[in-house]
Design a protein that fits this description.
single chain, alpha+beta, 3-stranded antiparallel beta sheet, elongated
């Protein structure tokens, strides 16, 4: 609050805040909101940090609306930066450390308390992160979590077979060593995702 919100909006009474004021603050934060200049990034603030500031301010303004202090939330209608998704994972294979672009990932799955990443080349690596964390880090336009134990890249899907009970079986390229099944609760969202 002290570093990112007060310097931009602190002099203005809450009742006079407008969406334009909030938008101007977001733009300024994105361009020059970093407190300590970074050698690589200069004064620019990351999209995720601006999004965090937005979430904090949005919640505070929602509270003010509920308390009757404001007629409407001035953060509504402001454009926040898009979420940045992970572009690379670091995996270990024996004594090697290998950087893998997310574009080469065909699918990620859990098996016997380990998480595995499979590339389009058919290479398989253990990955340390949980599927919950990974599913938040990957671009949802490219990846979909089809079940608790599997995330698939849209480009890895070769065909889909309807099964009894409303489930869907995915045939992937490269082929999976397990039954890649879309859970019943995710079938509708999965089919919508495929059509995008």
């Amino acid at each position: 609050i002290d570093n990112h919100i007060k310097p931009h909006l602190g002099d203005k009474p809450i009742t006079q805040l407008t969406t334009a004021d909030v938008q101007k603050m977001y733009n300024t934060l994105r361009e020059s909101g970093r407190i300590r200049e970074d050698a690589e990034k200069g004064k620019t603030l990351s999209n995720s940090m601006v999004r965090s500031v937005h979430m904090l301010l949005h919640e505070a303004m929602d509270s003010a609306v509920r308390e009757g202090l404001l007629p409407c939330n001035p953060t509504k209608g402001a454009t926040i930066p898009k979420k940045e998704y992970k572009e690379k994972y670091i995996v270990r294979f024996n004594d090697r450390i290998i950087p893998l672009q997310t574009s080469v990932i065909a699918f990620i799955y859990s098996e016997e308390k380990n998480n595995y990443l499979t590339t389009f080349d058919g290479e398989k690596y253990i990955i340390d992160s949980s599927l919950d964390v990974i599913s938040e880090e990957l671009n949802p336009d490219k990846f979909f979590r089809i079940s608790r134990s599997c995330i698939v890249n849209t480009n890895a899907i070769q065909s889909i077979i309807k099964q009894a009970g409303g489930r869907l079986l995915i045939k992937s390229n490269p082929p999976a060593s397990f039954e890649m099944t879309v859970s019943r609760s995710r079938v509708d969202d999965f089919l919508d995702w495929l059509e995008r």
